[in-house]
């Protein structure tokens, strides 16, 4: 009997939040930022390959990253590597992969996931994925996986559910009331204290036919650029077809384009130790092993004096790091770049705008 469960791994992001280790040519999802010996992409693939047949796992990435995916997931069937010519956010990515899957299996149930999350409780994660697939297969619902907040975090989007605290604590799928993008600190405090909100994990599950139906309703500008997909996808004409489609396609997320507008958005709370490590500061906050002064580092060759709450990451394990008097800083050392900067994410982003100047192309 054919297995109609599919997984789409979205691996096309180009954000350079982990410079200088991440670069435009090798962004976060292809790196071992967490220090576990595997890239985020590889970990995501292995996480789902135990739940869904490998022949039903697809990776969507930018054309220029195709060889990185082939290198890191050599067992991925070539026809399951979907290459986007341009970056257009998650809605076009989901449209493209949905059309490909529908051509293979009109009854498909799809789990869509970012490529760059950490999951700490694999057993709980497996149960949550199986539960959310089961619910999506039996109900007219676009499912999103929500994470119970552990604090008023401003780095994540929030989802409010119906039924107040009672609905949120029911442990059952619950209808979505509102989506909110990353809030400021005051609003995050309100959300957290209310008990009605979950963090938005960006993991979804739905029938392929249903997400297409809702995209036609709420994102006709995205769907229309793929007109003719039935006869073209999977043929030698696909690359030319995609170049034209993506050139005309608006840049929009599935959250904003569909999930915030549909009346069939439902949430399943999956408490499986989730983290979206989006920048150096979030990595620092995730690291559990720190010294007595709160410093986190991946090297044993260090001499710290009057240093507190710093993140020191090096690609050169032979070098000694002698640091005195730094507090709340990043020290990131690679073969061709050294970053010393406050850990604050806003300052980091402002600092990196200098890479856009002429003469710094090789370091981007």
Descriptive account of the structure:
With 364 residues, this protein is of the alpha/beta class. The longest helix is centred in the middle third of the chain and has 17 residues, at 122-138. The strands form four sheets. Strands 6-9-7-8-10 form a five-stranded mixed β-barrel. 32% of the residues lie in helices and 23% in strands. Helix 3 crosses helix 7 (208-218).
Uncertain segments: none
Helix-strand topology string:
EHEHEHEEHEEHEHEHHHHHEEHEEEEEEH
Distance between the termini: 49 Å
Calculate Rg over CA atoms: 21 Å
> Helical residue percent?
25-40%
Structural class: alpha/beta
Overall mean confidence score, pLDDT: 92
The spatial strand order of the largest sheet comes to 6-9-7-8-10
> Care to count the β-strands?
17
Largest sheet composition: 5 strands, mixed, barrel
Q: How many helices in DSSP terms?
A: 13
Give the key terms.
364 residues, alpha/beta, five-stranded mixed barrel, four-stranded mixed beta sheet, 32% helix, 23% strand
Summarize the structure.
This protein is an alpha/beta fold and 364 residues long. It is built from 13 helices and 17 strands.
Describe how the helices and strands are arranged:
Blueprint: E1 5-10, H1 40-49, E2 57-62, H2 66-72, E3 81-84, H3 90-104, E4 109-114, E5 118-119, H4 122-138, E6 142-147, E7 158-161, H5 164-168, E8 174-180, H6 185-194, E9 197-207, H7 208-218, H8 220-224, H9 229-232, H10 238-248, H11 254-259, E10 265-269, E11 274-275, H12 280-286, E12 296-297, E13 302-305, E14 311-314, E15 321-324, E16 329-333, E17 338-342, H13 345-352
Parallel strand pairs: 1-2, 1-4, 2-3, 6-10, 12-14, 13-15, 14-16
Antiparallel strand pairs: 4-9, 5-11, 6-9, 7-8, 7-9, 8-10, 16-17
Helix pairs in contact: 3-7
